[in-house]
Amino acid sequence: MSEPVHVIRNLEKALADDDFAWSLLLVGEDQTDKLAALTSDLRAGHSETGDGKQISSGFSYWGIGPTIAWAHAVSDPFYLVMKAGAESFVRHWQKIRPHVAKDGFHFVSLGVGTGQKDRVILEDLRAAKPDLFYIPVDMSSEMLRLGTQEPVRGIRFPMTQVLPVQLDFSLVDNMEELGQMLARLVGDDPLLYTLTGNTLANFDSDEDVLDTIASVLRPQDRLLLEVATTTQINEDAAKAAADEYHRTRAFTEFVTSALRYNTDLPIDLAMVEFRGSVTEDGDALLVKVLFTTDEPLVMGLPDHTDVVLEPGDTIRLYTTRKFSAERLDRLVAACDLTLVENAHSPFRRTRRPSPFGLDLLLLAPKSAQASRRTIADEMWAR
Ligand SMILES: C[S@@+](CC[C@H](N)C(=O)[O-])C[C@H]1O[C@@H](n2cnc3c(N)ncnc32)[C@H](O)[C@@H]1O
After folding, report:
1. What's the distance, CA 189 to chain centroid?
2. Is the pTM value of this prediction over 0.85?
3. What are phi and psi of 99, to 5 degrees?
4. Ligand 1, atom nearest to 58 Cα
5. Ligand 1 center from residue 138 Cα (angstroms)
6. pLDDT digits (tens, 9 = 90+) for 136-156
7. 97 C-beta neighbours (distance < 10 Å), count
């Protein structure tokens, strides 16, 4: 009796002959567990500082409503940080590119978003290695479908070399499994992981997430990290950081969309507060976006239970940070990484000089024995 032919082997041929817009998706986690996690986060205790009920990173983008709201926010001309980010990325990448151009990297994009940056990277990596795999990883299947249109259909990258993975990469077990699966897929070929768009700043613990990602890097792999930076750490700068996000209505629509789609709360944008502060370590600016209430509210959750929000209670909708060079150096060292290259742009779109900027860092695991440079040295050398 002949061996049955595995479905995956036949799928390539089956999809190639069809002009319907199929996309392939590898789902790494049970999505009911994710909904249970979100529901439990929304049931946390009373907090007036955004440290009780919350929508943690990943959940803000989860589902079709938040995905569309994100796509609107990034294309809003008033969302200056995003606009500046898209423009500076191309310049920054030119400086980083020589370090990865020739080595034949496969590309693992952690958090695809709308895919514009992935397109730039993919085009360059493809020139060096036409048979590379593109592996976009995201918690949101809708974001994966939307975000891979630009890099895949836009540059006619073959679908047979794309493997979208739906997974929460902030969880240690998930990242370990992903790392092992990728190593089996590509053998000893190097992998370029990317975490762009200041995504690292969205997590409760930036160090835990960076460490989780760094721990799967093999000596030949690299991590491209894009972060928002600041040269000033004080209350005024923290307030300016909060104002920067507050200015954009489309961004406020985006941060409330997860609440809109997963609860029955009536959302009034006037109840959204942007609070800036200096972090406890004193080496970064922290912005918390909060849904606040000054009257009791009943919130229906996805499991059909209700939670009462008492006056003063908050739901943290989004967290973001601006990093000082010292904090970045501390994070890089704590996660056993070294700096290979750093590109920086100051933020110039304000009337007064701004301490804010964007940095693109190429990092290697310490085991790679790359040259030892610090981000603080780079900033002083500018
Ligand atoms: C700030 S956007 C950045 C998008 C893009 N990389 C860029 O530079 O513009 C964050 C992206 O990461 C995804 N994301 C956030 N947290 C995640 C998590 N824990 N696991 C998987 N994806 C996550 C979101 O769905 C979104 O696509």
Report:
1. 24
2. yes
3. -75, -15
4. 16
5. 6
6. 999 999 999 999 998 998 888
7. 17
